[in-house]
Design brief:
With 463 residues, the protein is α/β, with parallel strands linked by helices. The protein has 19 helices and 15 strands. The strands form four sheets. Strands 3-4-14-9-10-13 form a six-stranded mixed beta sheet. The longest helix has 22 residues. The two termini are 36 Å apart. The structure holds pyridoxal-5'-phosphate. The site of pyridoxal-5'-phosphate has 16 residues, from helix 11. The site of pyridoxal-5'-phosphate (PLP) has 16 residues, from helix 11.
């Protein structure tokens, strides 16, 4: 029997992996979760000896329904675009500092780990069903280029990425617009990121248009993205447990939409010995306030030096809520409704799942993240990007003498060169891949911030 998936809101029938991957959001408005979490405790000793790709196959196998040889091929193909043989290596620039480097993919951000695989999974599923798919996404930076890189040149798929014209960094724009494949369309919208997102949402609400143009989504609520991210928690914990001879590890995770850290939560539920999940926010600290007070309350988004964490309502949080409420879908529905109406919900954390995976949470201001970048560079000669720096800073408050901490490095520092320069006072964050972008021809279409204009463009280019 292959794995079935259920909705956190419990009002739609269970679906298989393929349908879950294609639909993203469940039709009752909930998010998909596996109907049971596999227990991997008996496999840990053996998995410790596997390469990243072999491990990826073993960890993900119970969740997918793809023939073994095909799935191995898709994994190999997805991770051959990474520049490090370990895919996500662990480095230790100082004795108590373990960094799981997730940025060796083609766009230098951790999102490649999931989106490289997702692109190949989409292509595989579509070709076997003779279908095609047009992906539509709004981006303020990292997601757009990682999604484009996952989809470029793939058969049966096109991708349309909307971003605010003149309001993303020139490097981020060039990472998208210099991709030459003719199934990639970059649209610079004359408006803000919120305008882009509102346009995408409105287009998805037009079910006629959506079906006629075979639209699909690649945002972080897609279960297949979470799935791919579970793997590196196993890989990272194994490397550090080997070298330190510890029996467990803790992870510090720079968090925005709660996707990355939720993958760690699933890894722990599968039996990986994670003693503590340390959630790090920037000034947008709705999640750290929740873990410290039980109150989840929307605020205004503030712009910081770690833009991928500038999020107030974390789209994957509902998945955790489902487990926290002991898999009571009616309770999830009630609370999410309350949150939609009032922008606030309160849980009695003491009475909830005291037996569950442990979390700790904190936030790091732009100022303290910059100080962390400077300190780490001066003391260890190692450069952190501003997202990773927030994680390292928050991790320092939850240090243990017996349990090593692994900090997730979610972007290469050269992607955020401006912040690094501000922190260390010189231009040291570089990467040849980004430098080369300046010489490549760029392609984009500038359109007004109107639903009709975007729909018209998609309609003429989607077949
Ligand atoms: C997307 C992103 C994050 C946040 O990850 P979530 O899964 O949204 O919590 C952190 N750092 C970087 C560099 C990112 O691109």
């Amino acid at each position: 029997m292959s794995m079935m998936y259920i909705s956190t809101r419990g009002e739609c029938p269970p679906l298989g992996f393929h349908d879950v991957m294609m639909s993203g959001l469940a039709r009752d408005g909930g998010l998909f979760l596996p109907s049971a979490i596999p227990d991997a405790r008996a496999n840990l000793a053996e998995w410790m000896r596997l390469s990243y790709r072999e491990l990826a196959f073993e960890v993900m196998r119970p969740f997918v329904d793809i023939p073994e040889a095909d799935f191995r091929f898709l994994i190999d193909r997805s991770y051959s675009s990474f520049r490090h043989p370990d895919v996500t290596p662990v480095v230790s620039p100082a004795p108590a500092l373990n960094i799981l480097e997730l940025f060796h993919g083609p766009t230098l951000a951790f999102k490649d780990v999931a989106l490289q695989l997702l692109g190949n999974l989409f292509e595989y599923s579509l070709s076997r069903r003779s279908r095609s798919l047009n992906l539509l996404a709004a981006t303020s930076g990292d997601t757009g280029s990682a999604a484009i890189c996952g989809v470029r040149g793939k058969k049966g798929m096109r991708i349309f990425v909307l971003y605010p014209h003149g309001r993303i960094s020139p490097i981020q724009e060039r990472q998208m617009t210099t991709v030459a494949d003719d199934n990639v369309f970059c649209i610079a919208v004359e408006g803000s990121f919120d305008d882009c997102q509102a346009i995408v949402k409105e287009i998805f609400r037009d079910l006629d248009f959506r079906d006629r143009n075979m639209l699909g989504a690649v945002n972080s609520i897609n279960w297949a993205r979470i799935l791919a991210q579970i793997v590196y928690y196993f890989f990272g914990a194994f490397r550090v447990m080997e070298t330190s001879r510890a029996e467990s590890a803790r992870f510090a995770v720079p968090t925005g939409n709660f996707g990355d850290i939720f993958a760690g939560y699933i890894a722990a539920r599968m039996g990986l010995p994670i003693g503590l999940l340390i959630l790090a926010c920037n000034e947008n600290d709705i999640l750290s306030r929740f873990f410290n007070t039980g109150i989840y309350e929307r605020g205004k988004v503030r712009r910081t030096i770690s833009p991928s964490m500038d999020i107030q309502v974390a789209s994957n949080f509902e998945r955790y809520l489902y487990y926290l409420l002991r898999e009571d879908a009616a309770a999830v529905r009630r609370l999410m409704k309350q949150f939609d109406e009032t922008g606030r919900l309160k849980l009695d954390m003491e009475s909830l799942r005291s037996d569950d995976v442990r979390f700790a949470a904190g936030s790091s201001s732009s100022e303290s993240s910059l100080a962390e970048i400077k300190r780490c560079y001066e003391e260890n000669g190692y450069l952190l990007d501003p997202h990773t720096a927030a994680g390292v800073r928050v991790a320092a408050s939850f240090r243990s003498d017996i349990e090593p901490t692994i900090c997730l490095a979610t972007a290469h520092p050269a992607k955020f060169g401006e912040a690094v320069r501000k922190a260390v006072g010189k231009d040291v964050a570089r990467h040849e891949m980004l430098a080369g972008l300046n010489d490549l021809p760029a392609r984009r279409t500038i359109l007004p911030a109107s639903v009709e204009a975007i729909k018209g463009f998609v309609e003429t280019h989607s077949r």
